Amino acid sequence: MVRAGAKNGIHADLALRLYTARLLGGNGALVRHGGGNTSLKAPACDTAGRIIDALYIKASGQDLAALDLAGMPALDLAQLRALQPRKRLDDSSMVGALRAARLDADAPDPSVETLLHAFLPFKFIDHTHADAVLALTNQPDGAGLCRQVFGPEVIIQPYAMSGFKLAKQAARLASDNPEAHALVVLKHGLFSFGDTARQAYGRMLRLVSAAERHLGRVPRRSGRARPKARASMAAAKLAPLLRGAVAEVTDNGDTCRMIAEFRGAKPIRDFVDSRRLARLAGKGPATPDHVIWTKPKPLILPFIGPAAAAKVHQAVTAYAKDYRAYVARHRRRLGGISAPLDPYPRVVLATGLGLFGLGPTAREAAIAADLFETNIKIITDAARIGVYAPASEADLFAIEYWPPEQAKRAAQGPAPPLAGQVALVTGGGSGIGAATAELFAAQGAAVAVLDLDAAAARRVAGAIAGLGLGCDVTEPGAVAEAFDQICLAFGGVDIVVSNAGAAWQGEIGTVAAAVLRKSFELNFFAHQSVAQNAVRVMRAQGTGGCLLFNASKQAVNPGADFGPYGLPKAATLFLTRQYALDHGKDGIRTGAVNADRIRSGLLTGKMINQRSKARGLSQTEYMEGNLLGREVTAGDVAQAFLDLALARATTGAVISVDGGNIAAALR
């Protein structure tokens, strides 16, 4: 990396800084999801062309594992240190000062911990939230335990929120302890110092290893294990109920939904089935930084039993009431806040099952699940060696409602139209299905891609951070299993694009019955199987939904010798209308798209060549043979599906996407 950096004009110290930062970021026991920090004090060129002392530091929210030069803005070190004599500096002024100190005005905002790194005299500083260190520091006498484990080379700092005050305190302690190689901020994390990247990194690993050895020396308690809780319902059945309970109808009638990701590994099960679950989980996260993603505490769902939907709603309602009370207790202390956040949980612990991470996006739901899974390990270790004693509720509130964090949320702007929604696309491995999956993901949906070709489904899903599953939609059991997998990954389903199909040909008076039946299995009954499973999930959610079908122009404008394909497509067209009639009462809308001459697995290059030659046309003339004189693409069909999904007052509608073909128009 140093050689590669030299070729690009990057100084060796900076290249090594990036290298060890990535090593730290790649270790999940040290940092997770944008946590941790690294810095380097080195010369840099300012806008006037002068060489000055600079601080390179990780930008706010950057992932250490993928850190590059663009994610390490350089700041004027003298300008930062000029703040140190001040007695006070409020958070807004601090953020403004950090931005003003950037050598590149277009660089990302530097970390909120910038002043701590600037005020300390060390060239290289590493910072992690190591699991083992948090287990030591989240104790009633965390300071004493850290002195015992780390010895005099580590400075012990009581918990303080990152910012100007902590930076001044840390600088004073470092001045008083010149031989120290590291700093522990209780209930927060570990900082290691060095003259080289290798030295700072090595000290970090050595100290974390010492903490891990101490934890390893304390025997695991057998405790009073209660009998394993038997889940009252499968996680895939609980997830849609949970999503429905945390959904909220806005003033304009839209429904704000969340994604829910399930985790059920053995350590999670052991924790949620523990006799001490409520006592330990209710104390709060292992570091206040996690509260942004996890909220102050999880929702605990005990044995659900009969009337599960009502009980889940009651539990969520009680949680929301408690959260509003928590906000009311603390908002005056901070002089008021711009707006309370939504009161719904981000982590749900279900006895007998595991945990659900929730969030407005699949990424945020996964982060909540990841962080609480990490918290389970830390809490378990902390309780094993003593008494788990995390930061106070007031400290959590201060982080969750920190004004710059609120400003960052406000600056994000409106969410994309399908944010929080889960879309399922069958036949999504290519053609129309792939284009639809990509478009829905671009509009904010969490997308599940189903295809008979599992590799193709995974390939399309991988490009859009979705879920790819191999599924034969003509097998009802496989369809039901796929829906369960989607419920575990995303919590449910809101939009279904039933697109899978294939074209069989034959003269209707002579075609084999087996051919006709095979076509009906895929081009009609599979649509029915997918729709029935969707209704099952959508009803459990109680937030409506949208069923969309690829019906084809063959449904209303059949072609010669194309009956085996057109007949089931005609039935699917009327299936669209029947679902509109029968399930409008559930808030479920339907729609269909009649498309024609779309390059895909159905209309291959070979078929286009055959058809164009049979008509005495060039391939271009054949593909553009419509009223608009333009070729219709898979993207055009995908756009029609999106338009139907967003048309909240429309159901039973059929849209033609064929460039104009009056013979195929609905009358």
Kindly describe this structure:
By secondary structure, the chain is α/β, with parallel strands linked by helices. The chain has four domains: 216 residues, 3-Layer(aba) Sandwich (L-fuculose-1-phosphate Aldolase), CATH 3.40.225; 177 residues, L-fuculose-1-phosphate Aldolase; 202 residues, NAD(P)-binding Rossmann-like Domain (Rossmann fold), CATH 3.40.50; 29 residues, no CATH class. It is built from 25 helices and 20 strands. It has a seven-stranded mixed beta sheet, sandwiched between helices. The protein has a seven-stranded parallel beta sheet with strand order 16-15-14-17-18-19-20, with helices on both faces. Strands 10-13-12-11 form a four-stranded mixed beta sheet. Helix 18 links the parallel strand 14 and strand 15. Helix 6 packs across helix 15, helix 10 packs across helix 14 and helix 18 packs across helix 25. The longest helix has 29 residues. It is elongated. The N and C termini lie far apart (67 Å).
Given the structure, what is the number of helices? 25
Helix/strand/pairing category: alpha/beta
CATH H-level superfamily title of the largest domain? Class II aldolase/adducin N-terminal domain
Radius of gyration: 29 Å
What descriptive keywords fit this protein?
667 residues, alpha/beta, L-fuculose-1-phosphate Aldolase, Rossmann fold, 4 domains, 7-stranded mixed sheet, 7-stranded parallel sheet, 25 helices
How would you concisely characterize the structure shown here?
The protein is α/β, with parallel strands linked by helices and 667 residues long. 45% of the residues lie in helices and 15% in strands.
